[in-house]
Design brief:
By secondary structure, this protein is an all-alpha fold. Helices cover 70% and strands 1% of the residues. Helix 17 crosses helix 21. 50% of the residues are buried.
Length: 569
C-alpha cells in the first residue's frame, strides 16, 4: 500500500513539473481566453453538480441591496467628514458619492441582465477581457469581502457593547499577551456571529433572504426614528453656523465624497444572486438600481439630521457621533438605541456580503481557477455549500485575531479597481464585441479617458491651479463626445441597457480613478503585495488547472441527472 502511494506521489510530482515546463505556452493560450455568455450560462453551470434554486423576487433583491449597504458606514464616516471636510454640506458629499455608486450600479445591471450567473464581476470581465483579468478581479472581490466582513464582525462587538451601555468594547474581548499588537485581542463574539450566519446561509438562500428582509425593515424604521427625532429636536440654523454651508469650499465637499463613498459598497452583492432570481431582466434592474436610490435618500437625510442637531464644529469625529449628538440635545437614552440599531444593521449587511462572497468563489471554482470542490452546489438546499463553509471559516479566523485598523486599508482599493474594470468592460463589450467595430478606437478612448482622470486627480491632490482641473476635465468631455460621434453602436437592443452610453460608463471610470487617488500610499503597498500573491497562484496553479479542464472538455459527458434549463442570451 505504501509503495502504491509513493508511486502515485512521484507520478503527480512528475506531471506537475511537466506542466510547469509548459507554463509560457499555457499562459499564451489561457490568459486572454474568453467564454461566450451562452457557454457561461449553460455549459459552465453544469460543473457545480446541481443548479441554484430560483426562489428570489424583485423585493428580495431590494431588501438584500439595502441590507448590504445600510451597515455601519454612515455612523462611522458622517461625523468625521462633517467635522473635518464638508461641514454641514456633508449631505452634498453623500449625493455626489451616490451618483458615482449609481453609475457603477448601472454598469453592473446591464451585465447582470445579459449574463445572469452568480459570478458577478468575475464573469463579466472573463467574457470580455479574458481569463486572467476576470480571475484578478474575482480574487480582489473575494479579498474585499473576507476582510470587510471580518472588520464588520469585530465592529458588531463594539456596537453591541454600546447597546448594553458598556463603554469599552475590549472588555468583551480576550487579551493574549504573547501575540503581536493588533492581533492580541481575541473577539469570540464576532466569531460566533460569523459562524451562525454561515450555518444560516448553508441552509437556504430564500430563508436567509427572509431573515435579511425582516432585519432590513427594522433597520429602516430605526433610521426613520433617528431622522424624525433629530429634525424635531434640531435647528436649521446649525446648517449655516458658524462657517456657512460649506466652510471648506468645494474641495472639502469632494474630499468628503471620496470618504463617504465607501458607505455605498454592497450593491454588487445583488448581482451575484442572478442564478436564484425569478425573471432576471425585470428583477435585477429594480433590485440593484432601486436599492442604491433608497440608500442614497436615507444617507442624505441621516447626514442632514446630524448637522441639524448640532453645529458641525461640535460634532464628535469618531463613530459615536450620533450618540454624542443626541446627548447634546438632552436625549442620553438615544445612545443605547443607536448601538442596538447599528448592531442590527451590521448583521444584515454581513449576511448579504457573506451571501455574495460564496457565489463569487463558487463560479471561480467552476472555471477551475481554484479547486473544483469549491464550486459544488448542494442538491437539496441549492446553495454553494463548500464555498460558504470555507469562506465562513476564513472570515471567522481573521475576525478572531485581527484588529479593524489593520484590514480596513485593503478593502477600498480592491473594490474601486473592480468597479473601474467593469465600467471599462461595458464600453468595450458594447462597441467592440457586440458592434463588431475595430478595437483600436475603443482601446485608445479608454486609455485617454483613464489618463485624463489620472491627470485631473493628481492636479486635485497636489492642489494645483484650477486651470489644470479644467484642462483635464475638458479633455475627458471632449474625447467622450468625439468617441460617441465617431464610433457607432450597432448592436441589437437588449432587454435592459444603460441609457446615454458611453457617458455613464465614462463618468464612472473618471470618478473611480479619482476616488482611488484619495487612498493612502499604504493601501497601494499592501495591494501590490496581494496582487503579486494572486498572480503567482495563477501561474503555479490556475492556468494549469484551466488549461487541462478546457483541453479535456471535449471528452466530458454532462451528468444526465442534472436538469439544467437552457437560458438564452
Amino acid at each position: 500500500m505504501a509503495t502504491i502511494q509513493s508511486t502515485h506521489n512521484k507520478t503527480f510530482f512528475f506531471n506537475y513539473l511537466q506542466s510547469l515546463s509548459q507554463t509560457p505556452h499555457r499562459l499564451r493560450k489561457r490568459m486572454l481566453a474568453t467564454w461566450t455568455p451562452e457557454q457561461e450560462l449553460n455549459q459552465v453551470r453544469l460543473r457545480s453538480g446541481a443548479v441554484m434554486k430560483r426562489k428570489l423576487r424583485w423585493y428580495d433583491l431590494v431588501a438584500l441591496g439595502v441590507g448590504g449597504m445600510l451597515g455601519v458606514g454612515v455612523f462611522v464616516t458622517t461625523g468625521r467628514v462633517a467635522r473635518n471636510n464638508s461641514g454641514p454640506s456633508v449631505f452634498i458629499s453623500y449625493i455626489i458619492a451616490g451618483i458615482s455608486a449609481l453609475l457603477s450600479s448601472l454598469c453592473y445591471t446591464e451585465f447582470s441582465v445579459q449574463i445572469p450567473v452568480a459570478g458577478g464581476a468575475f464573469s463579466y470581465l472573463r467574457v470580455t477581457f479574458g481569463e486572467f483579468v476576470g480571475y484578478f478581479a474575482g480574487a480582489n472581490v473575494l479579498m474585499e469581502y473576507v476582510l470587510s466582513n471580518a472588520a464588520v464582525a469585530r465592529s458588531f462587538t463594539e456596537y453591541l457593547c454600546s447597546a448594553f451601555g458598556v463603554s469599552d468594547p475590549n472588555s468583551w474581548r480576550v487579551e493574549v499577551h504573547g501575540l503581536l499588537e493588533g492581533y492580541n485581542k481575541l473577539d469570540f463574539t464576532a466569531v460566533v456571529l460569523v459562524l451562525l450566519l454561515t450555518l444560516c446561509l448553508c441552509h437556504s438562500t430564500k430563508e436567509s433572504s427572509i431573515l435579511n428582509l425582516i432585519m432590513t425593515i427594522f433597520h429602516v424604521i430605526f433610521f426613520g426614528f433617528i431622522i424624525i427625532v433629530g429634525f424635531c429636536n434640531g435647528s436649521v440654523d446649525n446648517l449655516v453656523k458658524p462657517g456657512g454651508l460649506a466652510p471648506n469650499g468645494i474641495r472639502g465637499v469632494l474630499d468628503g465624497a471620496a470618504i463617504v463613498y465607501f458607505s455605498y459598497i454592497g450593491y454588487d452583492s445583488v448581482s451575484t444572486m442572478a442564478e436564484e432570481i425569478q425573471n432576471p431582466p425585470v428583477s435585477l434592474p429594480v433590485g440593484i438600481v432601486g436599492s442604491v436610490l433608497i440608500v442614497s435618500v436615507l444617507y442624505c437625510l441621516m447626514a442632514l439630521t446630524l448637522c441639524v442637531m448640532v453645529p458641525y464644529n461640535q460634532i464628535a469625529d469618531d463613530k459615536a457621533s450620533y450618540s454624542m449628538a443626541f446627548q447634546k440635545i438632552g436625549l442620553r437614552w438615544a445612545g443605547n438605541v443607536v448601538g442596538a440599531g447599528a448592531s442590527l444593521g451590521i448583521v444584515a449587511s454581513l449576511l448579504v456580503a457573506m451571501l455574495g462572497q460564496a457565489r463569487y468563489l463558487c463560479v471561480i471554482g467552476r472555471a477551475r481557477l481554484v479547486p473544483s470542490w469549491l464550486s459544488k452546489v448542494h442538491p437539496s438546499t441549492g446553495t454553494p455549500l463548500n464555498a460558504t463553509l470555507f469562506l465562513g471559516l476564513c472570515t471567522a479566523s481573521i475576525a478572531l485575531f485581527t484588529d479593524l485598523d489593520i484590514v480596513i486599508e485593503m478593502i477600498s482599493i480592491g473594490t474601486l479597481l473592480v468597479f473601474y474594470l467593469v465600467a471599462n468592460a461595458l464600453i468595450y463589450r458594447k462597441y467592440v464585441i457586440t458592434s463588431k467595430n475595430p478595437p483600436f478606437w475603443t482601446l485608445s478612448f479608454l486609455f485617454l479617458l483613464t489618463s485624463s482622470a489620472i491627470g485631473f486627480s493628481i492636479s486635485w491632490k497636489l492642489k494645483q491651479q484650477w486651470w489644470g482641473l479644467l484642462l483635464f476635465g475638458g479633455i475627458m468631455i471632449t474625447i467622450t463626445a468625439f468617441f460617441q460621434s465617431m464610433v457607432p453602436f450597432l448592436g441589437q437592443p437588449s432587454e435592459w441597457s444603460v441609457p446615454f452610453m458611453p457617458w455613464p460608463s465614462a463618468i464612472s471610470i473618471f470618478l473611480n480613478v479619482f476616488l482611488l487617488t484619495t487612498l493612502k500610499m499604504l493601501s497601494f503597498q499592501r495591494f501590490a503585495t496581494w496582487a503579486c500573491l494572486i498572480t503567482v497562484f495563477y501561474v503555479l496553479y490556475g492556468v494549469h488547472s484551466t488549461f487541462e479542464a478546457e483541453e479535456m472538455a471535449v471528452n466530458e459527458v454532462p451528468n444526465p441527472s442534472i436538469q439544467l434549463t437552457k437560458l438564452d442570451v
